[in-house]
């Protein structure tokens, strides 16, 4: 399943909206369950699009989760039960403190798998996601299909007028686009 690393590592799954990041994270959860890993699943409480207490992929896969407002609250959950792995969905919604938290968790021997957007709707890196990719042992970049030209899409294009970087939305507000079609607007 994984190459042999020291105890503790960080794996990051990134890509634009509609690329299957949550589905990939849930696939990792299924594999970890086969390996008898007790896994803590986290998402930001800000993300209420599909459910407040579950991670839900667009293809209908779902699993119960702990929703946290502050990623540092993960330490309270770790005191309640023994875990070997921690999965975090929509990590771009957490602030820069996620970098130190994930690094400390990996240094403490946990397998930490993080999924989130690498770029905002303006094609600028989410700073903490870029830093997490830099310290990760493994990075997977997923792609979607551009709705304009059907080439590989690496960006999330915001279709509505709203400058908020943390704006919840789905197909009515966003679409996957390639670089060329994103720049066309």
UniProtKB/TrEMBL annotation:
Keyword set, alphabetical order: ATP-binding, Cytoplasm, DNA synthesis, Kinase, Metal-binding, Nucleotide-binding, Transferase, Zinc
Binding site for substrate: 174
Pfam entry (one): TK
Catalytic residues (positions): 90
Entry EC no(s): 2.7.1.21
Binding site for Zn(2+): 146, 149, 178, 181
Alphabetized GO MF terms: ATP binding; thymidine kinase activity; zinc ion binding
UniProt binding sites for ATP: 15-22, 89-92
Any single GO CC term annotated in Swiss-Prot or TrEMBL for this entry: cytosol
SUPFAM superfamilies referenced in this protein's UniProt entry, alphabetically: Glucocorticoid receptor-like (DNA-binding domain) (SSF57716), P-loop containing nucleoside triphosphate hydrolases (SSF52540)
Family stated for the protein in its record: Belongs to the thymidine kinase family.
Protein name: Thymidine kinase
Protein's organism: Metamycoplasma auris 15026
